[in-house]
């Protein structure tokens, strides 16, 4: 916390704006618009998942449509496709960014058109762990085929690709302010919209699609997805500390990079070249067990014994039982990553001495 969150919340109580609209909601949206730039308009909503759901609705995704999704991600990237009665089609990652492979994306689009006679309605690309996807190639493919691109930047607030902020590449972008994200509103999200008219439409749908009549008039199905003015107060306070959090996460990555530099068999996930600037929301390693003599699970258990939490990478969606029937275009990359990867501590409380301890635990496992 920056310490300013409570002030915004107190103001909301003093002015009796204890509702899902008000000065904090508008103020937080303006802060985010300034931060992301590019003339984008922001609608603050109750969750990143809600932002993704609204993006699909605004992209015209309907029952039985197909939506191409990155397979290696958290399930919330794909679940809203199912909310719409549409079908996710999963595309594997490439090894540089761990995000959607442009080559497999194009193969999937061509094959879906050949099989179904219809274009997929949208593409959901993710900036996983804060690492920007290969946005130049992904945007070019989406444009060439005329398919709406949705950028799931839930984990990537403050990351840039070619100096442009993540969340602003697609027609729509989604941000998350869940408790574990770069900044938090306790729970919340934002939809990044191309213009004010689209933003107004998103807010209309997010506030139960209430028509402008004195009575409650509804012509469409709406949603209760707007952000609360209290949560937005936390968000405004968090904007004061965002740059500090970003600097901290990048510092943690630099320290890991130094500590792992002479550790055979461990590869730290890092910006592939200087077009990519990850926020390093999480710091992740790949463990080559033939070189280290231990697996990612051995590492996780040893760290847990020292009261250090780590986690396997996201299990790809094409391997998830709930999506067993979904078509997928894979080349083994995400399965390879999932079988070797571990997310290491990187949050605001992590100090350099903790990082040394973490790396020493792993060094003690080397056979
Ligand atoms: C990649 C990704 N997409 C979407 C979401 C959903 O965001 P929220 O938890 O705010 O609904 C999250 C995080 O929770 C995420 O990590």
Describe the structure.
This protein is α/β, with parallel strands linked by helices and 367 residues long. The chain has helices spanning 5-14, 23-36, 48-58, 79-83, 102-116, 135-145, 196-206, 229-239, 242-260, 289-292, 296-305, 333-338, 352-364, and strands at residues 41-45, 66-70, 87-91, 122-126, 148-152, 160-161, 164-165, 172-176, 189-193, 266-268, 276-277, 283-287, 311-312, 328-329, 341-344. It has two domains: 5-240, Aspartate Aminotransferase, domain 2, CATH 3.40.640.10; 243-364, Aspartate Aminotransferase, domain 1. The protein is built from 13 helices and 15 strands. The protein is globular, with a radius of gyration of 21 Å. The mean pLDDT is 97.
Number of strands: 15
Averaged pLDDT: 97
Radius of gyration: 21 Å
How is the main sheet built? Answer: 8 strands, mixed
CATH architecture call of the largest domain: 3-Layer(aba) Sandwich
Q: Which parts are unreliable, with pLDDT below 50 for 5 consecutive residues or more?
A: none
Ligand types: pyridoxal-5'-phosphate
The CATH superfamily of the largest domain is Type I PLP-dependent aspartate aminotransferase-like (Major domain)
Main β-sheet, spatial strand arrangement: 1-9-8-5-4-2-3-14
Share of β-strand residues: 15-25%
**What is the string of SSEs from the N terminus onward?**
HHEHEHEHEHEEEEEHHHEEEHHEEHEH
CATH class of the largest domain: Alpha Beta
CATH topology of the largest domain, what is it called? Answer: Aspartate Aminotransferase, domain 2
Structural class: alpha/beta
The N- and C-terminal alpha carbons lie at a distance of 42 Å
Helix content range: 25-40%
Number of helices: 13
Number of domains: 2
Shape annotation: globular
């Amino acid at each position: 916390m920056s310490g300013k969150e409570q002030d915004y919340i107190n103001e909301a109580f003093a002015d009796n704006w204890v509702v899902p609209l008000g000065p904090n909601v508008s103020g937080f949206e303006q802060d985010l618009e300034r931060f992301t730039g590019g003339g984008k308009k922001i609608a603050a909503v109750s969750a990143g998942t809600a932002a993704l759901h609204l993006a699909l609705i605004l992209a015209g995704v309907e029952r039985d449509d197909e939506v191409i999704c990155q397979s290696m991600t958290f399930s919330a990237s794909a679940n809203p496709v199912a909310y719409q009665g549409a079908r996710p089609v999963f595309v594997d990652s490439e090894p540089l960014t761990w995000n959607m492979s442009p080559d497999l994306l194009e193969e999937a689009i061509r094959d879906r058109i050949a099989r179904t006679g219809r274009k997929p309605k949208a593409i959901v690309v993710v900036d996983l762990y804060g690492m920007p996807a290969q946005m130049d190639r992904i945007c070019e493919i989406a444009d060439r085929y005329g398919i709406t691109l949705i950028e799931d930047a839930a984990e990537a607030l403050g990351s840039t690709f070619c100096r442009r902020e993540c969340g602003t590449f697609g027609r729509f972008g989604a941000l998350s302010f869940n408790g574990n994200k770069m900044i938090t509103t306790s729970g919340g999200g934002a939809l990044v919209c191309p213009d004010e008219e689209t933003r107004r439409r998103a807010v209309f749908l997010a506030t139960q699609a209430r028509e402008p009549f004195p009575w409650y008039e509804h012509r469409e199905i709406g949603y209760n997805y707007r952000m609360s003015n209290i949560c937005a107060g936390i968000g405004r306070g968090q904007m004061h500390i965002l740059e500090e959090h970003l600097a901290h996460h990048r510092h943690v990555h630099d320290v890991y990079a130094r500590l792992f530099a002479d550790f055979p068999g461990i590869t730290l996930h890092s910006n592939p070249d200087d077009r990519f600037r990850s926020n390093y929301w999480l710091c992740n390693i790949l463990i080559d067990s033939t070189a280290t003599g231990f697996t990612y699970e051995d590492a996780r258990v040893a760290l847990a014994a020292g009261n250090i939490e780590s986690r396997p990478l996201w299990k790809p969606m094409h391997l998830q039982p709930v999506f067993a029937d979904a078509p997928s275009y894979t080349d083994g990359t995400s399965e390879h990553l999932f079988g070797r990867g571990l997310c290491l501590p990187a949050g605001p409380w992590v100090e350099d001495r903790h990082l040394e301890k973490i790396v020493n635990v792993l060094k003690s496992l080397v056979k």
